[in-house]
Amino acid sequence: RMETDYNPMELQNNTGFEEDSDYRDFEGTDVKDMRLEAEAVVNDVLFAVSNMFVSKTLPCAEDVAYINVETRERNRYCLELTEAGLRVVAYDFDQTDDRLQTPYHETVYSLLDSLSPAYREVFGNAILQRLEALKKESQS
């Protein structure tokens, strides 16, 4: 049985969990903080966009975070990050538009690839440079 640093009884009142205590233990240890996930997304691709940061205005929670991104083409977007992936929720920083029905992308790479030809070029060049560096390393 896995050791945990909390009392499994704390989860007793959460609706939607199975009554089986092993299942509750697993759920309690598997919570992802979307703000941390969002920070990681930003750090991963910041070099290939003009500006990108986690929204300080829109609420972050365990299951959702919002990321503002400005592409190299100077287009602004607000992205929603959930377990389902990333999607555009507005065409400006710190906004959400419930009427927008944009598709989810599994990765930030595919989302930005669909929004920004300049991102695609910068990211592709970065990959090529890394490959060249690896090739030189392996030849020495």
UniProtKB/TrEMBL annotation:
GO biological-process terms attached to the record: regulation of canonical Wnt signaling pathway
GO cellular component terms, semicolon-separated: cytoplasm
Region of interest: Disordered: 1-23
All copies of domain GSKIP, residue ranges: 34-134
GO molecular function, one term: protein kinase A binding
Family under the similarity heading: Belongs to the GSKIP family.
Protein's UniProt name: GSKIP protein
